[in-house]
């Protein structure tokens, strides 16, 4: 069997299994999606969003890119965020990085990786801002893992800086942004405990409140 045929066979078996477990499963999904969570994660194949948090189809809205970044000029990510916040009314946004992220590592290297170097450029800035802390870490692996954490923390802040999120807060919408880092080594998520629910932690220059 061709590799790709195997995927189609898997799909057929999965759809059959889901219908056996719940004959109304697909009909219910067709009717509507009402996820309470938006996941913004890395494209890495080892970090499957739904499986990591035990969510069924329909329960998690997902956006993934290399090194789970939120960039103010990325209309792909921002369109997902706007739809999730303004139409789906998600209550939680999970920014989920992972230890050993190849994208974060590539950003620390001096060699060229092609187009992705441009995408990863903001992570070089994160390294520069936290240069002293990172350089004080002895092991290369530990230093990279800390940069993965700092990247997530920065992306939580980047989300809070958007007009989309701040306008939602101004409308009185309940909306929390969380920063997590997933470990491929043990399958567990570490909460960075940087959850934001309002703009109070943002410097004044980032406020849109007039
Ligand atoms: Co990654």
TrEMBL record:
Family matches, as SMART domains: Pro_CA
The reaction(s) this protein catalyses: hydrogencarbonate + H(+) = CO2 + H2O
Entry's Gene Ontology BP terms: carbon utilization
GO molecular function: carbonate dehydratase activity; zinc ion binding
Binding of Zn(2+), residues: 42, 44, 98, 101
E.C. numbers: 4.2.1.1
Alphabetic keyword roster: Lyase, Metal-binding, Zinc
Entry-linked Pfam families: Pro_CA
Necessary cofactors: Zn(2+)
Cofactor, free-text remark: Binds 1 zinc ion per subunit.
Entry keyword annotation includes Transmembrane: no
Keyword Hydrolase included in the entry's annotation: no
InterPro entries listed in its UniProt record: Carbonic_anhydrase, Carbonic_anhydrase_CS, Carbonic_anhydrase_sf
Top-level taxon of origin: Bacteria
NCBIfam families, per the entry: PRK10437.1 (NF007756)
Function: Reversible hydration of carbon dioxide.
Family as reported in the entry's similarity comment: Belongs to the beta-class carbonic anhydrase family.
Protein name: Carbonic anhydrase
Species annotation: Pseudidiomarina andamanensis
């Amino acid at each position: 069997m061709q590799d790709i045929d195997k995927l189609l066979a898997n799909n057929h078996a999965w759809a059959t299994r889901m219908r056996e477990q719940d004959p109304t499963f697909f009909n219910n999904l067709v009717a509507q999606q009402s996820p309470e969570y938006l996941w913004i994660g890395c494209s890495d194949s080892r970090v499957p969003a739904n499986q990591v948090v035990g969510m069924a189809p329909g329960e998690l809205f997902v956006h993934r890119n290399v090194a789970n970044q939120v960039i103010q000029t990325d209309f792909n990510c921002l369109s997902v965020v706007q739809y999730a916040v303004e139409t789906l009314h998600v209550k939680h946004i999970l920014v989920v990085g992972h230890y050993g992220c190849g994208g974060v590592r590539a950003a620390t290297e001096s060699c060229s990786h092609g187009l992705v170097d441009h995408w990863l450029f903001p992570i070089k800035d994160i390294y520069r801002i936290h240069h002293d802390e990172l350089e004080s870490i002895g092991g290369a692996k530990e230093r990279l893992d800390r940069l993965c954490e700092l990247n997530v923390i920065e992306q939580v802040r980047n989300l809070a800086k958007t007009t989309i999120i701040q306008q939602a807060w101004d409308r009185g919408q309940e909306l929390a942004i969380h920063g997590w880092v997933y470990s491929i080594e043990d399958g567990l998520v570490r909460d960075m405990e940087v959850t934001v629910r309002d703009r109070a932690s943002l410097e004044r220059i980032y406020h849109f409140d007039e």
